[in-house]
Design goal:
Length: about 250
């Protein structure tokens, strides 16, 4: 018979091996977001697919940037002279998307894709968020097999310069910092008016959350772009904020 100490050592060794195997085979904790509940989408456009596009686009935005800041139950899609997204009734979770094109026009789907991003937080009036929303529009359009080249050419020609300059800035920023940092981006929201209604990105706090090597590169890139972005502010709503990193 084996000595007592040797038997005890063998038992402990076997237990350790079994425990290690169990840990290896155990599934890691899920990092997935909870299932996204469908919302009501009410569109005044008669074209097929608008409602489904909003539902699927919202799910894609949540997967990429996280859960909405405020509850959302109903989205209205309406026609207007210019595209924008607004809170219809915050207490009821109602948001309206307004579009200036018809579904037969390729620009309709680009406008809609951009505005879908704002469903995550319709209180933003911020230059960084506008660039991020246009970047999301590019991704959603291409994922659905549509052509983004018309929009790219449109911005390269200097059309709607506020949206073009913010898009090119955030496209470069996203390429530097990566998907994980961009997923946290909208969580760095701060109010910029006395009644706590409109919001902007606290760009210094977001940059401070990045690793050193990407923080310095992202800050330098933003500082290079921001004068051109700010020069376009007179062309848009006066509520827009475009803070430069300190």
């Amino acid at each position: 018979m084996l000595p007592h100490r040797l038997r005890r050592a063998i038992v402990l060794c076997c237990f350790s091996i079994l425990l290690a195997v169990s840990c290896v085979n155990q599934a890691p904790p899920s990092t997935h977001l909870p299932p996204v509940e469908p919302i009501a989408v009410i569109s005044e456009f008669q074209a097929a697919g608008v409602e489904a596009f909003v539902q699927e686009g919202r799910e894609a935005a949540i997967a990429q940037y996280g859960l909405p800041r405020f509850p959302l139950r109903t989205v209205f899609v309406r026609s207007a002279t210019s595209p924008f997204t607004t809170l219809e009734d915050a207490s009821q979770g109602q948001i309206a998307i307004y579009l200036s094109r018809q579904p037969s026009d390729f620009a309709f789907w680009g406008q809609l894709s951009h505005e879908i991003s704002h469903l995550l937080n319709a209180r933003f009036f911020d230059c960084y968020v506008e660039g991020q929303s246009t970047l999301f529009a590019e991704q959603l359009i291409t994922q659905n097999g549509m052509d983004w080249s018309g929009w790219l050419q449109y911005f390269q020609q200097g059309q709607e310069p506020f949206y073009g300059t913010t898009y090119f800035m955030m496209k470069e920023v996203a390429a530097i910092v990566g998907a994980e940092a961009m997923q946290r981006f909208l969580s760095f929201a701060a109010y910029h008016d006395g009644n706590q209604h409109w919001m902007h990105i606290d760009i210094d706090r977001w940059l401070a959350s990045l690793p050193d090597e990407t923080r310095y590169a992202a800050k330098a890139l933003i500082l290079r772009h921001i004068p051109n972005v700010r020069a376009t502010l007179p062309s848009v709503d006066s509520r827009y904020v475009c803070l430069s990193p300190r």
